[in-house]
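Lab meeting minutes (informal)
Scribe: AK
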Amino acid sequence: MTPTPGDSWAVTLTAAFIRCCGFWAEDTEFGKKVMDIIVKYSVVAILWASAVTVSDLYHCYGDVDKFTYCGLNVLTVGFGSYKLVAFYMKRKMFLDLIYYAKKHFWFCHYDEYGAEMMRKCMRRCVGIILFGVSMSHLTIIIYYIKPLIGKPQYVEISVLYK
């Protein structure tokens, strides 16, 4: 008997990330209320991040390096905002998709060919998820570390040759 795709850590990891932003199909009333609270928290966090990045963008208007760096942070926040708005607008359809996937794909038993296809899909999905998560965390880490590092002190070459 082949293992079901729902036993995979890729499905577990994806479910955890989807739960973190409040988009998961819950069966109990308490679970639905918790997911609604998480969605509201996500909206507030995105709005706060937007305010901080726009403020950073405003304060570094004259410096091209800082402006480019802050512009990339704005794109990161914008991408998160887009995902949140897109999921929220189609939340019912997305939750139906999760129910359908749980019922028909994740917890079914496949023959060898189907299991191999699911393993290939899971491997690709894990790569995409790990890339996205690592890029997001790298952005956050660099955002916090950059002020601690400070500006490098360069010695001008023209001073050395006088």
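Next up, CB showed the second protein from the same session:
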Amino acid sequence: ERKGYMLRTLHVVKMRGTMHSLAKYILDLTPNGVVLIPLLKWGAESG
């Protein structure tokens, strides 16, 4: 929950032909479609 709003998140554990992923994304449903925003942890290294 952020500023009184519930956050939808997406976590894709495994897709065929790829390594496992621990990445999580904020899922935002807009009038124009779905928007995915990487959910970054404080102090986490990117890349």
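CB comment: The longest strand covers residues 25-30.
No objections, moving on.
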